[in-house]
Amino acid sequence: MAESIQLEVTRYSPEKGAAPSSQTFEVPLRRDWVVLDALNHIKDQMDGTLTYRWSCRMGICGSCGMMVNGEPKLTCATFLHDYAPGPVRVEPLRYFPIVRDLVVEMSDFMRKLRKVKPWIIREEEKPVSQGEYLQTPVELDTYKQYSMCINCMLCYAACPVYGLDPLFIGPAAIALAQRYNLDSRDAGSRERLEIISQHEGIWGCTFVGECTKVCPKHVDPSGAIQQYKLTAAKDWFKSWLMPRGAK
Amino acid sequence: MEVFSHDVLLIGGGGAGLRAAIAVVEANPKLTVAVVSKVYPMRSHTVSAEGGSAGVIKPGDSLDEHAYDTISGGDWLCDQDAVEAFVKEAPEELLRLEHWGCPWSREPDGHIAVRAFGGMKKMRTWFAADKTGFHMLHTLFQTTLSYAGIKRYDEWFVTKLLVDDGQVQGVVAIEQMTGRVHAILAKAVILCTGGCGRVFPYTTNAAIKTGDGMGLAYRAGAPLKDMEFIQYHPTGLPFTGILITEATRAEGGWLLNKDGYRYLQDYDLGKPEPKPVLRSMELGPRDRLSQAFVKEMEKGRTVKGPYGDVVHLDLRQLGEKLINTKLPFVRELCLKYENIDPVKELIPVRPVVHYMMGGVHTDIHGATPLAGLYAAGEVACVSINGANRLGSNSLPELLVFGARAGKAAAAFAAEQRDPGKQVLEQAMDENRRLEEQYLHKSGGRERVATLREEMQKTMEAGAGIYRAAGSLTEAQRSLQKIRERTANVMLDDHSLTFNTELIAALEQSFLLDVAEAMVHSALHRTESRGAHQRTDFPDRDDQQFLAHTLVSRNPDGGPRVSHLPVTITRWPPGKRVYGQAAQQTQGR
Description:
Radius of gyration of chain B: 23 Å
Number of helices of chain B: 16
CATH topology of the largest domain in chain A: Fumarate Reductase Iron-sulfur Protein, Chain B, domain 2
Oligomer: heterodimer
Radius of gyration of chain A: 21 Å
């Protein structure tokens, strides 16, 4: 008989009115299977009610983030055999409201993303007919890593500050704000700083760096937050020294 | 049932949909516009495109050369007026994306960098490392956030187009979070739902690529065009179907058979050189490379693997530094999903279904023959791709024709009166259908997943890289049986909250429409051209088939085929040549 492994999967349906519980499924343990393959196996062969999001299966669409044995992971990039002999615990992303089973409510993140103005802000726009804005590879490298965020929200599920204070704008949104601040073609950093430093969230971030550790795309939100703190602190200091001319 | 109303409605929030939405608000800020998408827009499949986006920008290149490469690459089935508009507007659109912040890779002096790509005689492919689609999609999505006028319905699934008096007047959609069914009325609807790779078992396409827009249009009475032309990408990873970008070959990667031999030299694709040569060998077009794989397999010169035959992609000669700077995602994918390091090891690859040349028939402005209905991107067939799309033409296509469809739909919507109330009755009927067929239905014994798998196997066996009357007729019979069994579907899930099994059942019904249209069109085209290779009719037949195939739905539900001549402007049909011969031909 082929090897198998147990998955302990969170089940929750608001229509049933019961608290979230866990259900155990036994699935084949194949060398090339990721956790998502096991979930698909359960859904297709065993229980069509199991509910989760997924799409690209190549770590770029950002849909399939879940907690695997307590850690936020992209399930399409997490091999089952790394957890053998099991069992493997699969839960919805931490700190988000559960919609059903492994699906979480993410409109809070979508609102925060828009709030930090993640688009190019310029005083004057040159016509497209005048060609590109020049940007050297060195200038590109300055912000490149922050542009790699796939909005998978693993960093929110790892962030102790977000866990305590859902108003905190959070690692990915701040990293994306920084992506535009550091872009040589952008002139909007002042506007974004005002939005981000409004809330005390960034001061609560204690440089734990959990967000950076769990990022599947090697973005460093923690670094972005520390840079923000520094800029905001300088600003505060300046406004205290020169109350009328700081901006 | 709640009723919402907008002037222009986009179905699909990928590259084409988002570009079209911006085009609508910029064309006419008075119009209300909304994007309905079954996933959050940044999850859309544009995100997976890797290699790049073609647009003439460098000295020494010309629009005519880009047009010629595209037309010859498409085996003369492209409409040349559409290609001319496309190559002219592609650079403007790519520059616009640059202005919006897309992190294009650069030359040392700060100008846009370009790379070589398959079937292109000049270097003209813009890229953002090897995550071009990802960066384009996120740039577009984040830019749309700056437009307060663009309303979004995230995670809403469209089940039907509302048509009254020969005109599209809106849609019916399920709000997945609550399971509620709503009507969204509109004066113009633009389909931007992408492709349908999930008709086949091995595909680079994401799970969401289920031909929804093609099915919606077809059922509403709009014809589908050139559905027999399905692109296999020659280098997908076995099992997962994950795409290994053509850019690997543009940077100098080789395809090797089991003897370590660069076998493409045996298939009229040129002689092996140590450095990549444009329009030659590994930089030949995708149809020819995928066909060469099958021939090589027939000769017994491929490698047996656990998921069928493979050949090897060799990147070792490129060195770690180049791979890390220009192909970092490829290395990440190989390491994470195949446990292979391309710096030191060979990558096993096989042809996998990648792109649909066919789609909803539109004119050069994205308009379908059905008033009020537009389409852009992979769901549409304009046609600039003809019988075979060149790599790096699909990303600029979704920008150029997304923008065109947006402008055209905006102009149309401004002239229309509000949709009539009659369509609301249709919407109520649709709501009842969903309840009766799925949610409230008891009994039935067919699982959605089983029907999907059988359809996929049928298509791979009958309508793959090579087809013949026999295999296609057999596929047609199997699909008919699967359709009959579809009436007997049983859902485990009768819940209203985020019912993904219901969505899968609806997607499967669209996939089946698409599969039937593909097989029917393929049977009808008794010639070989580009990606459509008939072993029983191995030659191209310009006498009979310099024409598009149109499939419409008969009142009884069955498909009806007709033809539409190809538009030729300046490039009369010629022979497709690659390798050394291609170096000698002029651009005209």
